[in-house]
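Lecture notes, unit on binding sites. The following record was shown on slide 14. It pairs a sequence with zinc ion.
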Amino acid sequence: MTENSDQINHSNEWKTKRQILAQRLVEQGSIRDLKFYMRQMEYSSKKQLIADIKSVSISLRNNNKLLKLEPARCIACGYIFVYKKNEIKIPSKCPKCRQQRIEWPSLRLT
Ligand SMILES: [Zn+2]
């Protein structure tokens, strides 16, 4: 993975993807699921998205803004995934009904 892939051109000015992600989270305020950010920010892997969200979450916390994760949910049976503290996971399969209709976790800024 190169450092270059971490940057996208944004209004004549080079910012890191993480800075843009942080800005979007603050501006949009409302709850959006991670799929929204994955698509909007053109992430190619969940892993990269999660790494960036973790990093952004730490820098936001230093500015007294708390990024809260609403857990993923199975659309088929309603199962709500359980997370450890500071854990971010995007499951692809429900452990209860084995279906793959998963509503991705959402982020809320408080
Ligand atoms: Zn399920």
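Take-home: Residues 4-109 form one domain.
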